[in-house]
Structures are given as C-alpha cells and as structure tokens.
C-alpha cells in the first residue's frame, strides 16, 4: 500500500488539494464543520489554515495550519479536542481573496510581492 494511502482507503493530499465541503474532524474523529476556504499563499506554497463552516452556527471559523494533522481526499483531520474545536475564532474576511470555482483562496493582504 502506498505510504500516503491509509488503511481505510483515504489518500493524504497536499493542502492545495483540500476537498471543498469536506468534513473537518476533531482528534476524536467527530466532524465539527466542513471546509469552506483555504488560507495561504499559493505562489509560495505556504499553508496557513482553513476557513471552516461549523455544523452549528453560520459564522465561518478560522483553523490554523498548526492544528491540521493531515488532509485526505475525504476529510481534514485536526489535533483539536472537541472543546478547542468549539472555541475556534471567527475568520477575518478582510484577509481573504476569491479564487473561483465555488471555493475561495485566501491570503494575508499585508503580504507584498517583490
């Protein structure tokens, strides 16, 4: 079995391949939301995190990359306890830009090219 394929058939993928609307799981494997957008710099291949649509509530939450344990073709697995997942901060829309195709690609506006 390839190293990036897990026993349950999930295949680990790079952050740019994060599935849109995939479940985001706490460390116990319980889904607390779905992926809505990426936060990062595509040109520099720097992943900063995700915007997550929570299962309860309407306000998107920001999940830092440091809490993403792995991304697969089916889900985003985090190291967050259920309590920490419930306490994620809201995302700040002013930092994010539209990508298209129903998803969003976000990057920090204070970054400058060159």
Word description of this protein:
There is one protein chain. This protein has one domain (15-106): Alpha-Beta Complex (Photosynthetic Reaction Center, Chain H, domain 2). It is built from 1 helix and 8 strands, in the order E-E-E-E-E-E-H-E-E. The longest helix is centred in the C-terminal third of the chain and has 5 residues, at 82-86. Helices cover 4% and strands 38% of the residues. Strands 1, 2, 3, 4, 5, 6, 7 and 8 form an 8-stranded mixed beta sheet that branches. The chain has one helix at 82-86; strands at 23-25, 31-41, 46-54, 61-64, 68-71, 76-78, 96-100, 103-106. With 114 residues, it is mainly beta. The N and C termini lie far apart (43 Å). Residues 98-103 and 107-114 have low confidence and may be disordered.
Measured as a percent range, the helix fraction is under 10%
- The CATH class is identified as Alpha Beta
Average pLDDT value? 80
Q: In DSSP terms, counting alpha (H) and pi (I) runs of 4 or more, how many helices?
A: 1
DSSP strand tally = 8
Radius of gyration: 14 Å
Unreliable parts: 98-103, 107-114
User: How many domains in all?
Assistant: 1
Rough shape? Answer: globular
Fold-level CATH name: Photosynthetic Reaction Center, Chain H, domain 2
The computed structural class is mainly beta
Please give the CATH architecture.
Alpha-Beta Complex
| Straight-line N-to-C gap | 43 Å
Strand share of the residues? Answer: 35-45%
